[in-house]
Amino acid sequence: MQTGWIPLIPESASTVSGKVDALYFYLSGVTVFFTLLISGVLIFFVIKYRRRSPFEIPRPIAGSHKLEMLWSVIPFLIAMSMFAWGAQIYFENSRSPKNANEIYVVGKQWMWKIQHSTGQREINELHVPVGRKIKLIMTSEDTIHDFFVPAFRIKADVLPGKYTNQWFEATKPGTYHLFCAEYCGMNHSGMIGSIVVMQPAEFDNWLSGNASQQSPAVAGQQLFQSLGCVSCHGANGEGGRGPGLANLFGRKVSFTNGESLTADEAYIRESIENPSAKVVSGFSPIMPTFQGQVTPEQLIQIISYIKSLQVTGAPATIAPATAAQSPTAASPAASATPAK
Amino acid sequence: MAEGLAEHEASHPALQHHFENLEQQREAGTLGMWVFLVTEIMFFGGMFFAYTLYRTKEPASFASASNHLDLTLGAINTVVLILSSLTMALAVYSAQIGKRINLMVCLTLTIVLGMTFLGIKAVEYRAKYDDHLIPGKLIPGRPFGPEVAQHGEPYDKHKLHLLPGAEVKKVEMFYWIYFAMTGMHAVHMIIGVGLLSVLLFFSWRGRYGPEYHNPVEISGLYWHFVDIIWIFLFPLLYLLGRHLEHL
Amino acid sequence: MKPFESFELPSASRVNYLNADYGLKSWLLTRDHKRIAILYLGSISAFFFIGGLYAMFIRLELLTPQGDLLASTTYNKVFTQHGIIMIFFFLIPSIPATLGNFLVPLMIGAKDLAFPRINLLSWYIYLLGGIVTIWALLAGGIDTGWTFYAPYSTTFSNSYVVATGAGIFITGFSSILTGLNFIVTVHTMRAPGMTWFRLPLFIWSLYATSLIMILGTPVIAITILLLAFERLSHVGIFDPANGGDPVLFQHLFWFYSHPAVYIMVLPGMGVISEIIANFSRKNIFGYKFVAFSSMAIAVFGFLVWGHHLFVASQSVYAGMIFSFLSFAVAIPSAIKVFNWAATLYKGSISFDTPMLYALGFIGLFTIGGMTGLFLASLAVDVHLSDTYFVVAHFHYIMVGGTLLAYLGGLHYWWPKIFGRMYPEGWGRFSALVVFVGFNLTFLPQFIAGYLGMPRRYHAYPPEFQVFNVLSTAGASILGVGLVVPFIYLLWSMRYGKRAEPNPWHLPGLEWRTASPPPTENFLETPQVTWAAYEFAPPEELQVIGKFKDEGVKTSG
What is the DSSP letter of A335? Predict the structure, then answer.
C-alpha cells in the first residue's frame, strides 16, 4: 500500500483472508484464461476467415456432439472445483469457535454501538487483540445493516429482531476499515468505522485504560432484578414459578406443544418479548410480555446475563478475559498464535 | 375486426385478419388463456407462500384467527361456487351444440351465483369490519383492534378467543393475508362476472354457435380457475387448525 | 411519432407499414406489431435517456471522495432511480418489446402477433406505469435502492415508495402480456413448414424469455403489492418489530429479480446468435445446444435466487445448495459462448457494425459471466457482496451484454425497420467507442470492489478515488459512444441510403419481404422449406410475393 503501486487486493489481516485470497486468485486466473482464450479465438477466426468476396458462401458445419460435450463437461468440472473450494471455506467458517471472546454489536442508523463482554463500550470503533478469536453477536435497532471488514474478508447482515453471528481472528496489528454494506438510508456511507487490531499486551493496556464500565452481564443482572424477573425465575435464575435459567443457554428445552429446541439468543429474546409463544413443559403461560419495555441493547444485556449463568449458581461476574489471558499477554511472543 | 379479408373471402365474420382460419384462432385463444392462468397461479402462489410461511411460524395465532371466521358462510360460498362451475360448464356445452336459449340461461345462472358469492363475501367482510378486524389502518379511523376474550370466558363470536401461544399482533397478520387473498379472489370474481355479462350480451345477439364459441370456452376456463383458487382458499383459511380449538 | 409523416415515399408509391396510414391516431390506435414496436422504441429510448442522465450524476458525484456535488439524500435517490428506470423501463422491455415485437411475426412468417390488441394494450400499460413512476420521481423520488429491501422501504424511507411501486406493478403487466403474446404466437402462428427446429435462435431466446416473464413477473407484482400494503398498514409481514421477517421480502423479491436478469440477457443472446451466424454466413454451430441452453437458463434461472442472500442470515446448507445451482446455471451460458466462437470457424466474416457489437458482446459477456462465478462462490461472495465488484459484474451483463446486443440488433434490422441504411462508418466508430468506454468505466470497479468499496456509498475513503476517476472518465467516453448512434440513426431515418429488401443477403424470412415491410408482412403466406441460416446465392433469396411499384393492395 505504501509502495506507490495501486493495490489490487486489500490488506490481509485475518486467519481467513489468506484462504479467500487464494480462491480469488484461482477464480481470477480462470477468468483471465478463458477471457483471453475466447477473445484470442475470436480475433484469430475473424482475421483468418474474413470475407474476401461479397458473395462467397462457406460450407455449412452442423456441429459436433464431441465438442459440445467437451465444452460442457470441462467448464462444469472447473465450476465444481470453484464451488467445492468456496463452500469448504464458507462451511469451515460458518460455525463460530467455542472459545471465542464475545463482543456485542448493535447497528442503528447510522452508527455502530459495540460492547465488549468486559463492559467497555465503543462507537464506530472496535479494539481487538491479535491472535484471539472474536465472535460478534449482532443485531439492529432499526433497519438492516451489514458489518463488513474488508481486511478480514468477513461480512454479515445485521438484522432487526434477529441475532446474527460472525467471527474472526486478526493476524496483523493495524487499523482497518469497517463499513456498513447494506444500504440503510441517508447516511449509509457515513456508517463506517475502524477496527483497531493491537498486540495482546497493548490491548490489555487499552482495556484497563478504558475505565471499565459495567459488563453487559452485570447490567443484565440488574435489569433482571429491576424488571421483576427474579420473582419467578429466582434471584440467581434457579427457577420457581418460572423455569430455571441456570445452564439454560445451549441446552435443549422442550415445550408444552411437544416441540423442543436448543436455547439460543433468538429463543431467549422471543421468550422475553412473546413468552406465550413457547411455554416450557411443566409450566403455565403466566409470564407477561416485555415487548416494548426493553431496548435491543438491554435485551443483549439480559441474554448475556443468562448466558453467564452457565456454572450452576455462579454469580454474574464473568471472569474478564484480561485476567484469564494475562500470562499470555505478559509473554513477549508477538507472533499471532491463537491461544489454544 | 373484419379488415384485411381480401385473401380469405369465404371466412366466418368472427375470424380476425391475421389468422389463417378459425381453427388457428381458436387454438391461439385457448393457449393464451392457459398461459394467462399460469401467470395467475404464480400471482396467487406468492401469497400462498407467505401464508404457508407464517402459518408454520404462528400456528396458534393463525388457528385462533381462523376460528373467528364464519365457517357456515364460507361453506355456503363454496357450494355456490361449485354450482356456478357446473352452470358454466353447461353454458360451454350449450354454445358448442348451438342452443342459444340454454346458453343464455346458463350464463345468467352463473352470473347470479357469482353475485351471490360476492354478496355473501360482503356480509363476511362487514362482520370483520364490525369486530375491528380490518388489519392495520387500511380503514381510516378504524384501526385493527378486536375485543379479546379473557381466558376461560364463554364463547362470544364478536370477541377474539386466543388459543395458548396466540397473539393479537399475529392474528392481525392472519387477517392481513386473509384480506389480501380473498380480496384478490373477489377482484377476479368481479372481472369474471363482467366477462360473463359481455358473453351474455353477445349470445343474445346470436354470435356463438357450433363453429365459433371460443370466447365462451376460454371464459369458462377462467371461471373454473377462479373457483379452484377458492377451493384452496376455503380449507386453508377456514378449516385448517380448527381442531386446535379445544387444546 | 410525427416525423414519419413527412417521409418521402420509398420507391414511388409502394405502400408499407409506415406510410399505409397517416396521423397521430393511426399510430396511437394501431394494432400492427411493427408500429407498436416503433412506439416502444420511442418510449424506451426516452427512458434510457432519463436513466443515463442519472448515471451521469452518479459518476460525477463519485469523482471525488467527499460527496460534495449532491447531498447524500439526493445521491441515494439518484442511484435508486437510475436502477429502477434502467431495469424496469429500459432493460426488461428493450429487446423483446422493440426488436421482438417487430420481428417475431416476420421471422416465423405470420401476419401479426396472436393478440394484436393485447399487444397495443401492453404498450399503454407500459406507458401508464412509466408515467406513474416518473410522476413519483418528480413528486419527490425514491431512495430505497432498486431492491426495495424491507424494513427500510416499509418503515424508514421517507420517499415515494408506494407510488413508484405502483408504477412498477403496472409495468409488470405489460411484460406479462408481451410474454403471453409471444408464447401463443410462436406456438400457433408459424408459417407452413416453419418447424420448431427451423426457427431462428432469436425466436427460441424470446420464447425462453417469455416463459420467465409469465412465471416470474406475477411474483414481483404480488411482492410489490405486499410491500405497499405493509408500508400503508404496518401489519408487520416484513417487519421484525411486529414478528415479520424482512428476509421473506428478499426471497420473494429475488425469486423474480434473479430470473429477471435472464429476461434482460436472453433476448440479447438471441440477437447475438442471429448476428454471429448471419454475418459469418454460417449456420450456427450446435443449433440445438444453443436453443436448449436458452430453455435451460430459463428453468434453472428460477432456482438460484438464494445466491443474493449468502450474507443475509440464510442457513449454511441453503447457501451451499444455491451456490451449487448458481455454478450449474453458468454452464448453458458457457455453451453458448463456445458455440458462437465455433460458428465463426471457416465462415465468411464481415465487419459491419452489428458484427462489431456482437464480437464486443461475446468478450464482455464472457467477463461478466466469469465474474458471476466469483459471486456464486460462497467464501468469495461473503467478501464481495454489496461491493463495487457486484456493480461491475452486473453492468458487464446488463450493459456489456444486453445494451450491446440491443444496439447491434438495432443496427442489424434498421434497414428492415425504416427502409434506410445507417451510415456504416459512424456505426463502426461508435461501436468501438462504446466498447472502449465501457471497459474503462467498469473494469476498475472490479478492483475497487475487491478492495472493499461498498456500493451505494455517497462518499468513500480516499484510497478508492483512483478507480472512481478512471470509471468516470470511461463513462464520459461511453456517453459519447451512445449519443453518436442516437444522432445518426435519427438522421438516417430521413437521409439514409434507401435499403433493399435484403441488404445483407440473408436467408431469414424477415429479409424476404420489402423494407420496410407492408402492413400484412408478406403478400402471400410463406412456405418454409429451409432451415434457419441456410445460406444461398443472392439470386435464390427471392422476395415472397410480387411487389409492384404501383398500387399494391394493403389493408386500410
Answer: S
Measured CA angle at B22 (ends B19, B28), to 5 deg: 65
Q: Which residue is closest to A255 within chain B, CA to CA?
A: B165
Cβ under 8 Å to C: A residues 35-94: 35, 38-39, 41-42, 45-46, 49-52, 55-64, 67-68, 71-72, 75-76, 79-80, 82-83, 85-91, 93-94
Distance, first Cα to last Cα, chain C:
19
pLDDT band (50, 70, 90) for residue B222: very high
B136: left (phi over 0), alpha (psi -120 to 50) or beta: left
Question: Measuring CA to CA, how many Å separate C26 from each of A81, A286, C17, C101, C444?
Answer: 59, 74, 11, 18, 49
Dihedral, CA atoms, C237, C242, C246, C247, nearest 10 degrees?
-90
Residue with cell 459484474: C393
Is the CB of C280 less than 8 angstroms away from the CB of A144?
Answer: no
Chain A: residue nearest C284 by CA? A62
Element (H, E) at A82: helix A65-94
- Give every CB contact of residue B148 below 8 A, 6+ residues apart in sequence: B159, B160, B162, B168
Find, among B165, B179, B166, the residue nearest to B135 by Cα: B179
Extract the C-alpha cell encoding C8. Answer: 418521402
- The DSSP string of A27-42 is HHHHHHHHHHHHHHHH
Name which of A49, A72, A143 is nearest C344 (Cβ-Cβ).
A49
Helix crossing, C465-495 with C404-418: angle to 10°?
Answer: 10
Asked if C402 and C269 touch (Cβ cutoff 8 Å), the reply is no
The complex's ipTM works out to 0.90
Band the pLDDT of C246: cuts 50, 70, 90.
confident
Intra-chain end-to-end CA distance of chain A, in Å? 32
Q: C386: nearest CA in chain A?
A: A181
Task: Give the pairing of strands A164-169 and A133-140.
Answer: antiparallel
In angstroms, rounded to a whole number, what is the distance separating the alpha carbons of residues C213 and C96?
11
Listed in sequence order, the residues at least 6 apart from C124 whose beta carbon sits closer than 8 Å to its beta carbon are: none
Q: How far is CA C84 from CA B186, C63, C91, C171, in A?
A: 31, 23, 10, 12
Q: H/E element holding A262? A: strand A260-262
What span, in angstroms and rounded, lies between the C-alpha atoms of A191 and C496? 55
Nearest to residue A183, comparing CAs of C146, C259, C255?
C146
Tens digit of each residue's pLDDT (9 = 90 or more) over C263-295: 999 999 999 999 999 999 999 999 999 999 999
Q: Show which of residues 232-261 on chain A sit within 8 Å of chain B, judged by CB atoms.
A: 256-257
At residue A330 the predicted structure's pLDDT band, cuts being 50, 70 and 90, is: very low
Residue A249: what residue type? F
| Listed ranges A206-210, B132-136, C394-398; the one with the highest mean pLDDT | C394-398
Q: Are C226 and C237 in contact (CB under 8 A)?
A: yes
Nearest-by-CA chain C residue for B45: C219
Please give the Cα distance from C393 to C374 (Å, whole number).
9
Say if C536 is an interface residue toward chain B (CB within 8 Å).
no
Where does residue B105 fall: left (phi above 0), alpha (psi -120 to 50 degrees), or beta otherwise? alpha
Among candidate residues A77, A28, A46, A63, the one with its CA nearest the CA of residue C338: A63
Distance CA C470, CA C476 (A): 10
β-pairing, A111-116 with A121-123? antiparallel
In the three-class reduction of DSSP (H, G, I as helix; E, B as strand; rest coil), residue C505 is classed as coil
Predicted model pTM: 0.86
Report CB contact under 8 Å: B164, A279. yes
The beta-carbon neighbor of B173 closest among C110, C223, C235 is C235
Task: Note the pLDDT of residue A267.
Answer: 84
Tell me how far apart the alpha carbons of residues C224 and C467 are, in angstroms, rounded to a whole number: 35
> Which distant-in-sequence residues (6+ apart) come within 8 Å of C186 by Cβ?
C104, C108, C199, C203, C206, C207
